[in-house]
Amino acid sequence: MTQLQNLYQFDVLVVGAGAAGLYTALCLPSKLKVGLITKNTVALSASDWAQGGIAAAIAPEDSPLLHIEDTIKAGAGLCDEAAVEFLAKLAPSCIQSLVNMGVAFDRRDNQLALTLEAAHSRHRVLHAADTTGREVITTLTAQVLHHPNIQVIPQTLALNLWLEPQTGSCQGISVVYQDRVIWIRAKAVILATGGGGQVFAHTTNPVVSTGDGVAIAHRAGATLRDLEFVQFHPTALTVPGANSFLISEAVRGEGAHLVDDTGRRFAFDYHPQGELAPRDIVSRAIYSHLQSTPNPATANVWLDLRPIPPEKIHRRFPNIIQVCQRWGIDVFSQPIPVAPAAHYWMGGIVTDLMNRTSIPGLYAVGETASTGVHGANRLASNSLLECIVFGAQMATLQVEEEAIKNDSGLIEPLSFTLSESNLLFQQTKLEEIRQELPRLVWQSAGICREEKVLESAIAQIEMWQQEFANLPLSQFILNLPPARAASFGLKETHQQLWLWGETRNLLDIADLILKSALFRTESRGGHYRQDYPQTEPHWQAHTLVKQDKLWKSQLEK
Ligand SMILES: Cc1cc2nc3c(=O)[nH]c(=O)nc-3n(C[C@H](O)[C@H](O)[C@H](O)COP(=O)(O)OP(=O)(O)OC[C@H]3O[C@@H](n4cnc5c(N)ncnc54)[C@H](O)[C@@H]3O)c2cc1C
């Protein structure tokens, strides 16, 4: 087990061990002492679950210019063109770097195999069967473990940034480690905490995706952008207990049909590209199509793989075959029941091409960042790519040479205890919020949104935030002086602190998503308002948030 004394200071602290965190840690100058924390094990992340692949214009008939065009088209007027250009042009060299590290992408005739995904104009998606993310993460993890300058610290939950009072720059972070709150000093902190799908009742994201980076950066006063834009994946498995397991876009790319109960390919009623239209359109098509069923909330449509040659299904989708089999579905003889689920959060912490946020010393990479490459809607397979291309930028990070201060963790920790009855009350309240909140956000800020429903959901969230702030544990942790560690005489301390920390973040991001969704009175990309169904030219602008201010940027060209 990692010794507590070793934890207190690093040159750079990377928070998160998905593709963004691992690749960033590997790219940082090797003379720096790097801490890499993750709240779970290194094996659990959205990156590990990525199936379809990673996009790069490497085919002779393709070019970065076409990749740029497709990305900007999907982004519905809100992409940052410089960021997209940067992403698409660096994609081929980043793929090469992954191959050099040992990532075994599928090959055909000894060339890297490429597949087509929705809204890509060319075959451009590299893959490793249907477990591309696992292949990437396994390789990156092995590399990280061989880097002596990187110390991996699992089961450590980042709580709050630690800002220098005079300059406002980031000097570290507070975390829950074992049964304590401790403070880690670092000259630079890099948030790579991934998305926030768990704020929705139906999501393809793993349990760790609770929007922590966005919530942490927000509380410290960083500027955030476009939090209303959430991509709903059209095809998540709907069998009870299957946790909205994703049935990859690539399945439709290879020829699967999306059909209703009568076997009709209804997606063509909504868009000429049918099931290969952009994700938001296919998700809304399913949503609308199901409204006429007796119980739209639990109804499903079907994904029929039988048009794909069985040999190809075996070769391309072994994991999907296996998971479906586990739920009693034989994809070779019957269609898969599917419905939309929250999948990817386009919004995040505003960053520039060097991953700098608006707080000096704080950086963000991956899904938690808003680099501008996805605009209002992400093009499939561009997100793993974003983790790698932007992570590579950290190779040029410079931090001050001076020795880091060794002041934290040396003072006796403050201790917190609670009577059995108060403990029970607190636990019950936290569990109640944790259960109810995703349902509320799914109903109010899911695929279709509307003013009145959003307003009433915001009122409920604010009430929960107040109740949360009044809990004894909140009162104690929120008033902890900077650099002062804390210990807890609680039953099952670790679980209590985790539940507390994640619930706090989920409340914060729910509030931010709902308020941003209410603010944008139009429909665009991953944000659809039933009461404002049109895309409005005067809304070709970003939603920006900084503390309790929310405003619209200048119009994009
Ligand atoms: C099922 C699924 C399939 C997908 N398929 C594809 C695909 O084919 N192609 C593609 O490009 N994209 C795909 N995506 C999206 C893509 O996987 C993610 O956008 C991307 O992997 C995000 O990487 P990340 O490193 O930013 O975050 P993640 O991979 O989610 O990693 C986040 C890390 O941060 C840690 N963490 C979070 N909060 C804290 C905290 N408070 N303290 C400490 N650690 C913390 C987590 O434990 C985890 O280690 C898919 C997503 C899902 C869910």
What does this structure look like?
By secondary structure, this protein is of the alpha/beta class. The protein is 34% helix and 18% strand. The protein has helices spanning 19-27, 46-49, 64-74, 81-101, 132-145, 212-219, 249-253, 279-290, 310-316, 318-326, 382-392, 420-445, 451-470, 472-478, 493-519; strands spanning 9-15, 34-37, 54-55, 107-108, 111-112, 114-115, 125-126, 150-153, 156-163, 170-177, 180-191, 224-225, 230-237, 257-259, 301-304, 336-345, 348-350, 362-364, 369-370, 414-416, 486-488, 543-546, 549-552. Strands 1, 2, 8, 9, 10, 11, 18, 20 and 21 form a 9-stranded mixed beta sheet that branches. Strands 19-17-12-22-23 form a 5-stranded mixed beta sheet, covered by helices on one side. A 4-stranded antiparallel beta sheet has the order 13-16-15-14, covered by helices on one side. It is globular. 54% of the residues are buried. The mean pLDDT is 93. Flavin-adenine dinucleotide binds next to α1, α2, α5, β9 and α11.
